[in-house]
Design brief:
Helix content is 14%, strand content 42%. It has 238 residues and is mainly beta. The protein has a domain of 74 residues: Acetamidase/Formamidase-like domains (Endonuclease I-creI, Roll), CATH 3.10.28.
């Protein structure tokens, strides 16, 4: 889905408050030979054919089997604005957001995205009822239809803003999506330092030293053309 935002102009920052994510009653996950999963080549080359699983979702649990229930933790896989000049497939993430597959893009979080075109053209989709880190088997989360409620606000974009920001009650977070997980990690770390310096009064050196002790980070998606890395700073230290 694509949403136009009245009054959004290039150079602004779009704050997207995620109010509710309500998954439907059916979910799906799977893979097939040739998928861009993250297993070693020798295993990927095995003739596994098409492997798929359809599951029931009851609002609290994903019913994996008759004996195993997984707690539902809904998230939005794709959330992004339109870039200024290039056309991108929805499989990609980047400074605009897009296919980030970050579990923290969930209810009670605010995602900060750049406005590069009139109306922002906010894209949303790819909701998962649950997803493990890495999204390792391609269709890695429990893919499902969902009803999502959002609120958007227009803000002034910070001068040091270079990648997606997320905020909730406990953390400030940066998300970068580059060609490699390593490149994404470097960008997200640097941008978290810049956020601390720009809005919380830290000197860059002090921010760097403190992050070295308390930063939390992980790769949330490793199978798309771009890999996603999230870096998190607990607000209790700010």
């Amino acid at each position: 889905m694509c949403i136009g935002v009245n009054g959004a102009r290039p150079g602004a920052l779009l704050a997207v408050d995620i109010l509710e994510i309500a998954p439907d009653v059916l979910g799906y996950t799977g893979f097939e030979d040739g998928d861009s999963g993250s297993l070693p080549y020798k295993i990927k080359a095995m003739d596994w054919g098409h492997c798929a699983k359809t599951v029931r979702i009851d609002g609290r649990f994903v019913h994996w089997s008759d004996t195993l229930k997984l707690p539902v933790s809904p998230m939005i896989g794709v959330l992004g604005t339109a870039p200024a000049e290039e056309a991108l497939y929805n499989s990609r993430g980047g400074p605009h957001g897009g296919n980030m597959d970050v579990q923290e893009v969930c209810t009670s979080s605010t995602v900060y995205l750049p406005v590069e075109t009139d109306g922002a053209l906010l894209h949303i989709g790819d909701v998962h009822a649950l997803q493990g880190d890495g999204e390792i088997n391609g269709a890695g989360g429990i893919e499902c239809r969902s009803v999502v409620k959002l609120k958007v606000r227009l803000l002034k974009r910070p001068a040091e803003y270079r990648c997606v920001r997320i905020e909730n009650a406990g953390y400030i977070m940066t998300v970068a999506c580059g060609r490699t997980a390593e490149a994404s990690f470097y960008t997200a770390t640097e941008q978290l330092m810049m956020w601390m310096a720009g809005e919380y009064g830290y000197g860059i050196r002090d921010a760097y030293l403190l992050l070295g002790q308390v930063m939390e980070a992980r790769s949330t998606q490793f199978v798309n053309p771009t890999s996603s890395y999230i870096c998190k700073m607990p607000k209790r230290y700010l």
